[in-house]
Specification:
Length: about 450
Amino acid sequence: MPSTYEFTFLKDSAAKAFEPRHRQIINYNIDKYDVAVQSGLSRFHHIENAKRKAHIIKWRVMENLDKLLPEFESNFLKKGGKVIWANDAEEARREIWKIMERANAKTVVKSKSMTTEEIELNAFLENKGVATLETDLGEYIVQLLNQKPYHIVTPAMHLSLQDIADLFHKHFGTPLDATAQELTLKARALLRQQYTTADVGITGGNFLIADTGSIAITENEGNARLTTTFPKIHIAIVGIEKIVPSLADLDLFWPLLATHGTGQHVTVYNSILGGPRHVDETDGPEEMYVVLLDNGRTELLAQKEQRQGLYCIRCGACLNGCPIYKNVGGHTYNTTYSGPIGSLITPHLRGMEAFKHLSYASSLCGKCSEVCPVKIDIHKMLLLNRRDAVTGDIVSKTERLAWKSFTFAITKRKVIDFFKGKFKNFLLLKFFKKAWGKHRSLPKIAPKSFSQQWKQRNDTSA
């Protein structure tokens, strides 16, 4: 029996893939992205060498994670920061709430963070009576809609300008024909005061820097800088895989992230934060915490063949290149991380039995591997996930029997040639019509197989 997640995915993706307006919006936005990325990549003297170097650095990181993480912790503590190790989402939420309770915090401003989405922090804080506000414009928009982010980098990619104008008109009374600039200015006016009055600022982190004990945050709106500057407490929630050995590594990773994420040469704001405000500094928080989040990452690290998934720098390039994602959209995955990289890592982070179906949501065209800035062999990893689902005995008996029968037949020419085309077409119609989909016609199998036709032709010629 398929899991609840699998059933929902199949149902939602079948509907979304044939929704013309959705496809129009996504194709329009991704086409603009493709043009920008080509321009950004042209700035690299040799992009393949850059990607290969990034791959090697991330490989070394995973091989030495047990050394680099304590190095980061030691250096961060020296700067007055505090480190919290969280084994799972529940522990992360519990430790964050301890900080909030101790400070009697009632308001939170957040910059864009996929790890906070991963641990469902917003809902948790709201249930505790804490007002939590997303300050990234895309995140703010989906928060108003009470939705999850649609995309790793661009949370509101599925919305048109008119959709957002309608949303702002409903909530704030802006004109229905408001321009993008007018909507942005309205959001700025609404959010600006929140930074100065919030008790706590919460962010993610693009990179953890081991040798300096710092976190690096990259953004385009400046909201992360405001989130980390005004509130008295700053909490950064970062996955343990985000570490890089040295500050010098940002010289490679920042441009790779920018070009593959948005097509920019470098993002507008790049910040390196190393602890709370010192006595000789004029701004910054009085307390700074870094929550090092595991939440299934060590389980993926234990998979020697698939641990490449932890190399991901969350640029979103594989989503934009994936034909499946471009048709079914981000929300259908029902996971924090969608698209090819989400299909690779989610079964390990959240359970193979519940999410094995995502590894089959791929055409295996290899585009995801081609565009990855750290050269993760994503489509191969998806095949390995499929293998693990079978060897782990979490596929149905019907599926196992069907493939066993198919393998027996397809590897024996006499069996294939024994059945006529008419019977084969009957089998297709009987057992595969529903799986093939109502929008496509089943292929017609010829009355005779190729080998039979070849033999007949050669016999006739003789």
